[in-house]
Amino acid sequence: MKSFLALLTLALCSLACKSPIVGLECRENFSLCGNACVDLRSDFRNCGECDNSCGRFVCEKGSCSAEEIRDAGIDSGSSDAGAGQDAGRDAGADEDAGSFNPDTGLPGCSVGYQDCDGVCANPSTDPRHCGSCGNACPDGMLCSSGTCSRECETALTQCGTLCVDGQRDPDHCGDCTKRCTSGICELGSCADAIAGQAVVIGHDFTSANTAMQRLIGNAVFLGLGAPVRVLVYTGNADPASSMGVERAIDVVKTETGRDWQRVEAIEALVPLQLSAADVLLVHAQVEASNSSLRKLGEHWGNALAQFVSIGGVVIVVEAPSALNSGTFQVLEPARIFLASGRAEIEPQALTVQTPGLGVAVRVPDRYMSLSHTVHFSGVTSPGTVVVTDRDALPIVVQRVISPP
Question: If 0-12 CB within 10 Å is exposed, 13-18 middle and 19+ buried, where does residue 147 land?
Answer without folding.
Answer: middle
